[in-house]
Design goal:
The chain is α/β, with parallel strands linked by helices and about 160 residues long. About 30% of the residues lie in helices and about 30% in strands. The chain has a 6-stranded mixed β-sheet.
């Protein structure tokens, strides 16, 4: 069996922990819990004919007062950049954070998850932002930790990209 380290990165309160909880334990809670440092989970997944043991590193969210410790990213085979679709500023932070991650660990596979799709009526990401994502050629998945939409797809797509490297 192959083990692969995958990190969850993104701004504060984008739903990184909720996405991991939905993926690993099939649960969701409306109770917000701040991640302090890093929380590590594991999940065995099948990608094609290959089993992969994902070691999921849920890193605390970056805001103006704290910076993600780039050393947490070392050894990662891939990562998910999580954006809160109801807060446009989290997409701006994602652009910056993705560049910093790539500068730290190199060009490994990543997926951008536009989280909180269940709150589509409150969406703050417009068509021009979506066009910018398309121009960057990023793999983007609309998701919701609350409903489960896109969660499995995001992790399995990342696993597929990791295995194709």
């Amino acid at each position: 069996m192959i083990q692969k380290k995958v990190c969850m990165v993104g701004a504060f309160a984008t739903g990184k922990t909720s996405l991991v909880a939905r993926f690993v334990h099939s649960i969701y809670s409306d109770i917000y819990q701040t991640t302090v440092g890093v929380k590590i989970d594991k999940k065995l997944v099948k990608v094609g004919q290959q089993e992969i043991n994902f070691i999921l590193w849920d890193l605390y969210g970056e805001d103006e007062f704290q910076k993600v410790r780039m050393s947490y990213l070392r050894g990662s085979s891939g990562y998910l950049v999580v954006v809160d679709g109801t807060r446009r500023t989290t997409l701006d932070k994602a652009f910056n954070l993705q560049k910093r991650v790539e500068d730290t660990i190199g060009p490994v596979p990543f997926i951008l998850v536009l989280n909180k799709w269940d709150l589509k009526d409150e969406w703050d990401i417009d068509d021009s932002s979506m066009d910018e994502l398309a121009e960057r050629n990023w793999t983007v998945i609309k998701g919701s930790a609350k409903t489960g939409l896109g969660v499995e797809e995001a992790f399995l797509t990342l696993g597929q990209q990791i295995m194709e490297r």
